[in-house]
Specification:
Order of helices and strands: EEEEEEEEEEE
Number of helices: 0
Strand content: over 45%
Distance between the termini: 31 Å
Helix content: under 10%
Length: 179
């Protein structure tokens, strides 16, 4: 999904520095469920239902602390970076399906699958590279790619833990201001 990121790099030598960046990504997702409900009169005769609600939300906030190697050739700047990341995730998960049944109970109709929002956070890593073109000494336009990974565990009460591999590959472009 689309998001926003802002960051700053402070060089403590000509080519080596520390970078701090933060970002937020939100998107709508589709989940699938496959419900198997035991028959109330017959053993080993489950009734099945499936569906795919599409109004679920996923939000991911990121903070990165990186060691950054920078270089310059004419009007072009480049950087390679890597370091630690802190990610916070808020995700809608599907609750227990609610269903209706009538005699002879061979079929069920799913009446509702509640969505429940859970959040958690965790630490991970990131690596990436960027390039920028300077229009002047102070203004430029840059592109960068970053791969981030952190494992986040959401723990709905009374259900299995949901493990999310947060992060992934991100591409960003935008204004660069040099001080």
């Amino acid at each position: 999904g689309f998001g926003f990121e802002a960051g700053v790099v402070w060089n403590f030598t000509r080519s080596l520095g520390v970078g701090v960046a933060g970002g937020l990504v939100t998107r709508s997702v589709v989940a699938q469920y496959d419900a198997r409900i035991p028959h109330p009169l017959f053993l080993r005769r489950d009734r099945a239902a499936e569906g795919a609600p599409d109004d679920l939300d996923y939000k991911e906030g990121q903070v990165h602390l990186d060691l950054v190697y920078t270089g310059r050739s004419g009007s072009f700047d480049f950087s390679v970076f890597g370091g630690g990341s802190f990610l916070g995730v808020t995700a809608d998960l599907l609750g227990q399906p609610q269903f209706e049944q009538t005699y002879p109970f061979n079929n069920i109709t799913i009446s509702n699958v509640p969505k429940i929002s859970y959040d958690d956070s965790g630490f991970g890593f990131n690596v990436g590279a960027g390039a920028a073109y300077r229009f002047s000494d102070r203004i430029g336009f840059g592109l960068q790619g970053r791969f981030t990974r952190a494992t986040i565990e959401l723990e709905p009460p009374g259900q299995d833990t949901v493990e999310i591999d947060a992060g992934g590959f991100q591409v960003a472009g935008g204004l660069r201001i040099y001080f």
